[in-house]
Amino acid sequence: MYRFSRAIYRELESEILEDHPLQSGATNHERVLRACEAAIHRLATDMHYFARPTKTLFNDIRIYFPMSSQRRVYCVVDRYLKLAREFLINQPATGFDLEGNRLECRATTRRGTACQRVPLPHNGYCPSHQHLAETEEVLAAA
Length: 142
Ligand SMILES: [Zn+2]
Prior knowledge:
Elements: H1 2-12, H2 28-46, H3 53-61, H4 70-89, H5 130-141
Helix pairs in contact: 1-2, 1-4, 2-3, 3-4
This protein binds zinc ion.
């Protein structure tokens, strides 16, 4: 999974601004790589609640790039996060995420407890709760 964050980093590393001479702690290169990894990790483990991955990662790393690179940074981030998302939703539904955490349907049952069936990767709902995903799409489009 982290091949996606490494790919973002590799495409952009030559444009990362030099560290400020008084800066302490992590270098700009480390900060960019960590931010990319964090975004991929969140996408892999919490995709359905990660509303705007491109915007989030772009906002996290844009300060480490010059003005002239901003547009390219945005496009690279967007391209690889879309590929990562596509990769994730095409994984077979094993009931576990890539870190081995058990996945559960996002719906709540009529009794008010969490539905524990295995969700489908593309929207996080089990087959009996697919109608909730459709409602969500309608709301998002409105
Ligand atoms: Zn369900």
